[in-house]
Amino acid sequence: MKSMEKIVSLCKRRGYLFQSSEIYGGIQGFWDYGPLGVELKRNLKDAWWHDMISGHNELVKPESAPTAFEMVGLDSTIIMHPQVWKCSGHYDLFHDHMVDCRESKKRYRFDQIRGRWVEYQDKKVFVTTMAEAEQELDEVRRRGMKFFRLRNKDADKISVGDESLTLDKLDSTENVLAPDAKNLDTLTEPREFNLMFKTTLGALGGEDDTTFLRPETAQGIFVNFKNVLDSSRVGLPFGIGQIGKSFRNEITPRNFTFRSREFEQMEIEFFCHPDQSQQWYRYWRDRRLAWYKALGLSDESLIMREHHQEELAHYSVGTADIEYAFPFLPEGEYGELEGIAHRGDFDLRSHMEGKLDPSTRPMQVELGEDGKPKYRGSGRDLSYRDEATNEKFVPHVVEPSAGADRGALAFLCEAYTEDEAPDENGKLQSRTVMKLHPRLAPIKAAVFPLVKKDGMPEVAHEIYGELKRHMNVFYDEKGAVGRRYRRQDEAGTPYCITVDTDTLTDRTVTIRDRDTLEQTRVKIDDVVADLQTRING
Ligand code: ATP
């Protein structure tokens, strides 16, 4: 059975993910990727970069696209001019406003984009660290909740007293927090939290030196729109992609890496003519969903959720979320992996004119003395002139915005499988196997000499050395070969290459497939090409 507890434990045991600063008790909302995790996340980002940006062929029109198009990349800074965040709306609007209901004790946050209060508290909480468990207990006390139920009774790591929670040793435990009342009427005064991390430039640190760690990579693309246009000969329609860290001071980071305070985004801003923007929106929505499926997320666990009209930002004519059935969510619920938004000309216009119309915004925008929004744009002309028609316009934008950490987590959850495989004597043994797509797998192949003698290690070294030039491979000569296979199954390694007695006479090896368990004999000279075909298709 797939459970979040087992996945978290495997992640730690095998070096996929560690709690940040663990030896000091950890820091909430921050995660470190271990030796396997770093490879997985890098492979995911490389796949995205290749499939969306560097491997894109602008000469061929994809079947479902309105026209052929170009894609280029960018790497902008994390700290930007403070005015960027004022014009983008983040300075005024990227706040969490929270209220508590006095009766039900439920907590609500104001969703700026949707313009309404949404229940803040997740119904089901996955606790992975001591600090998180303690925070949940505080929440239970604060809300005066009647019950705090352990879903996984076997875990026996939390004992629930009247209002106490004793933690002996905590790797992971799944809890269901259930509020006891449903009345939503009486709400406390809103309290405000800015989600942007502040920092100070230079030594003096006056008010003017305050700036922010970016909460999204997108703005770096918008402010470079003109630079890219002028320097790279691209013309509309085209997209600019960027991968990089973003930071949000989330009030309740939780559910493993799903909601972190430091995370990585993979974002595209696709610029097009307003008349074609609806078609491009549909194109990107469908293409992004297909991408996750091609890398192994199953149809049953993925949904595309189109936002209702009332959920849409005022400038958006369409937004869809690609959501995944993470095991920490209740049955039938999904968590966002990526949002694809039609953003109209809102962002480019904001950076041109500082156009923030308070009447269309749910929260108050600070006005200047002239009654207009205080934060003016750059004053630069960010419009586009079509050379063929001479038409001048501000392009519309379609934004597929994905999280690399949520993606990596979804692929880990999907990959976790328990099945049975025969051991050396043909007896079925249960095994845990991470069925990661070969492109994403941290280690592509493991090389084993069957025994540590008769010249087998020397041949295995030779193969290992050759493969290392092309991909990440692992060498192991310790213990029974069956156990070595098991270790690689758990690490998600798709292929194991074994040097045996036959190798010494005919220079062939066996390649074992992790998922089908099929073993094929391949000439040593063909191993690299064989693996490359298996991995990249
Ligand atoms: P949520 O509603 O879950 O807070 P969001 O709608 O605010 O997410 P966006 O601003 O659209 O998210 O960001 C785009 C993507 O960045 C998300 O789909 C997600 O994959 C990722 N992301 C956003 N916030 C976080 C976070 N705190 N931790 C990890 N990934 C995140």
UniProtKB/TrEMBL annotation:
Disordered: annotated segments: 354-379
MF terms (GO), sorted A to Z: ligase activity
InterPro entries: aa-tRNA-synt_IIb, aa-tRNA-synth_II, aa-tRNA-synth_II/BPL/LPL, Anticodon-bd, Anticodon-bd_dom_sf, Gly-tRNA_synthase/POLG2, Gly_tRNA_ligase_bac, GlyRS-like_core
Catalytic activities: tRNA(Gly) + glycine + ATP = glycyl-tRNA(Gly) + AMP + diphosphate
Cellular localisation: Cytoplasm
Key words of the record: Aminoacyl-tRNA synthetase, ATP-binding, Cytoplasm, Ligase, Nucleotide-binding, Protein biosynthesis
Positions with biased composition (Basic and acidic residues): 369-379
Entry EC no(s): 6.1.1.14
Binding, ATP: 248-250, 258-263, 336-337, 403-406
EC primary class: ligase
Domain of life: Bacteria
Family, similarity comment: Belongs to the class-II aminoacyl-tRNA synthetase family.
This protein's name: Glycine--tRNA ligase
Organism: Novipirellula caenicola
